[in-house]
Specification:
With 71 residues, the protein is an all-alpha fold. It has three helices and no strands. The chain has one domain.
Amino acid sequence: MVDLREASLEDLLGDPIIQAVMASDGVRAEDVRQLMKRISIRTRLHLDISEPIWKPTQRGRLAGSSGLAAG
């Protein structure tokens, strides 16, 4: 039987292919979780989502100690 539900963020982050791509780009799962959390908060607060909430750095890493730019 086919599972037709949408994959959760954790499902996606647990996928070996996605993990390999993220590793090659220097992106950590926690970086993605924090980015999605910030997007969710901005969306709920109806903030301007056209403003970038992360800044790419060398090899795709996200800026800041947590991987995200302040904002």
